[in-house]
Amino acid sequence: MKKALVCGAGGFIGSHLVKRLKKEGYWVRGVDLKYPEFSDSAADEFQIHDLREQPNCERAVITREGGPFDEVYQLAADMGGMGFIHAAECEIMRNSSLVNIHMTDASARTGVKRYFFSSSACVYRDMEPEEPELSEEAAYPALPDNEYGWEKLYAERMAMAYGRRFGMVIRLARFQNTYGPEGTWRGGREKAPAALCRKIAEIKDGGTIEIWGDGTAMRAYTYIDDLLDGIYLLMQSGLEDGVNIGRQEYVSVNELVRVIAEVAGKEVHVKHIEGPVGVKARNFRHDRISAIGWESRFSLRDGIGRTYPWVKAQGEAARRAEQTS
Ligand code: NAD
User: Fold this and answer.
1) What is the pLDDT of residues 118-131, one digit of tens each?
2) In 246-292, which ranges are E strands?
3) Catalytic (active site) residue 115
4) Confidence at residue 275, expressed as pLDDT on a 0 to 100 scale
5) Sorting pLDDT into bands at 50, 70 and 90, what band is 84?
6) Mutation pick for ligand 1 pocket among 59, 75, 82 (CB with most ligand atoms within 8 Å)
7) What is the DSSP string of 184-205?
8) Which atom of ligand 1 is nearest to the CA of 121?
9) Which of 168, 240, 250, 285 has its CB 3.0 to 4.6 Å from that of 133, i.e. a possible disulfide?
10) Ligand 1 contact, 79 CB (< 6 A)
11) Side-by-side strand order, sheet with 218-223
């Protein structure tokens, strides 16, 4: 039985990844600062560690039997939506770099065979909406739009350097915006799809929500199950260097609002306000991940159809809890 360590297993993607690896027959240890918020972890063992500390990384990468894990999936990061990325530049650069430095080093020195790093579409430069899709090499010459993207590029390079020196197989995925049930939906770290689901769930039919900017920024959103398919295929594959994973269905933020409103069955008015908007557009090629058999299975409408009811139920449960407390 293969043994996998999932770092960031208390978070959105990490907790789903643990479930997926269990289905694939792995023995899994999860590690995070916290347990998953919305369901029990499916991990065989869950350790609470601050991975900014080297000794904690060294403890985490050793199995109960005293050997290295077969596979390490590094998803732990100080992470949030665009508001958080702009407000917490220093925390992101410090905390996520420390986690990546120590976890890459501990994994390589312990003899981990395969190391997965969750990078981001934020490593690419800003784009115009109609620009041709970028392939992975276009991350260089580098010009990420925000410090989160620079930290990811540095961590990618560090993983590759350790891979070369220690013979550790490195797999680097650059995720696009990913959403789905059991993701952060309030509190300041939530990303656009969850934030908009929450706002639309909270208003009456015909009500108004506020969104940052004019709503014309173009994005592609990936449903969690599609992303997990990509992570799993990539880790089993021979694909080296950065690999984009994401659905090629480009929509404006205004269109995203329209899809959520349709799923909610509400008429929604939008008030555009000042706020951090991020890049104008992101258009990527997906030839590399497609070449190993990946295909998106969930349209934005399908994914929102599964995510909106979950966010709505969370909001209702939170309101009931407030009333009874
Ligand atoms: P998340 O915030 O839900 O999960 C990250 C987890 O890392 C959290 O549970 C957090 O507690 C943990 N963590 C942070 N600092 C830690 C530390 N010092 N020690 C131990 N654990 C720590 O975020 P997510 O959406 O699940 O993202 C997972 C990974 O994927 C991140 O690396 C993120 O940058 C990357 N990514 C996500 C998206 C997306 O749209 N969700 C897009 C691109 C890249």
Assistant:
1) 999 999 999 888 89
2) 250-252, 269-273
3) no
4) 85
5) confident
6) 75
7) --SSS---HHHHHHHHHHHSPT
8) 43
9) 285
10) yes
11) 177-179, 218-223, 250-252
Q: Which of 26, 148, 179, 221 is catalytic?
A: 148
Sorted by where each begins, the domain ranges of the chain are 3-178+222-245, 181-220+249-278+298-313
- Show Cβ contacts of residue 293 under 8 Å, excluding neighbours closer than 6 positions: 233
CB-based contact 198:235 (threshold 8 Å): no
- Proportion of the chain above pLDDT 90, given as a percent: 91
Is the CATH code 3.40.50.300 the one for domain 3-178+222-245? no
Determine if the pTM surpasses 0.90: yes
**Mean pLDDT within 207-236:** 96
- The CB of 14 under 6 Å from ligand 1? The reply is yes
- The CATH superfamily assigned to 181-220+249-278+298-313 is UDP-galactose 4-epimerase, domain 1 (3.90.25.10)
Q: With a 6 A CB cut-off, is 224 part of the ligand 1 pocket?
A: no
